[in-house]
Amino acid sequence: MYERKTELETILQQFGAGEHYSGYKFCIRAVEIALEHPETLNSITKCIYPEIADLYHTSRKCVERNLRTMVEKIWKSGGKEFFCGPDSDNQKRPSNSRFIEMLVQILNSETPISGKNLCQFCAVTAHYKERIAHMESEAAKQQETIDWMHDMIWDLLGEKKKYLAEIEQLQKNQQN
């Protein structure tokens, strides 16, 4: 679990959230719990918040509020594009449970954290990957058209040469 904790800390730092947020340590523990027991994501207020509150000698409301504050900070400082993508009309930040769920998904992905860049999970990146795939498809179609035109031009040039040779032959025949 230590390796995952380090990965999670790296991810949160990429989001701009640091240890100075009370929600930071709560978030790390919430993700650890969710990784160990995925079913707890379905009842975060009954399963995860109480365990964290007991661990840190605080209340469930405090845990929920500090997590919410950290998610809000991430949302306002660029996380919106991560969660929603460039064309989304969604103006609402994700819930604490959705944020924790997304972190769990990132940690469970097959990419090792050393090479993990949040952009590969970002909705903006997904949007541009789709656009790039579409553009590559269009470029392939255009290349086919260019190849066809190239072949057609060479065929026409060949026919032109043949016709010019025939015309030249006819002119020679008329002169004789």
Keywords:
0% strand; mainly alpha; 176 residues; 6 helices; single chain; rod-shaped
Could you give the topology of this structure?
Blueprint: H1 2-15, H2 22-36, H3 44-55, H4 60-84, H5 96-108, H6 123-175
Helix pairs in contact: 1-2, 2-4, 2-5, 3-4
Query: What count of helical segments does DSSP give?
Result: 6
Strand content: under 5%
Structural class: mainly alpha
What helical percentage do the residues reach?
A: over 70%
- How do the SSEs run, as a string of H and E? HHHHHH
- The tally of beta strands, per DSSP, is 0
> Which word captures the global form?
rod-shaped
Radius of gyration: 31 Å
Stretches where pLDDT is under 50 for at least 5 consecutive residues are none
Mean pLDDT: 83
Structure description:
- With 176 residues, this protein is mainly alpha-helical.
- 75% of the residues lie in helices and 0% in strands.
- The protein contains 6 helices and no strands.
- The protein has helices at residues 2-15, 22-36, 44-55, 60-84, 96-108, 123-175.
- Helix 2 crosses helix 5 (96-108).
- It is rod-shaped, with a radius of gyration of 31 Å.
- The protein starts with a helix and ends with a helix.
- The model has no long low-confidence stretch (mean pLDDT 83).
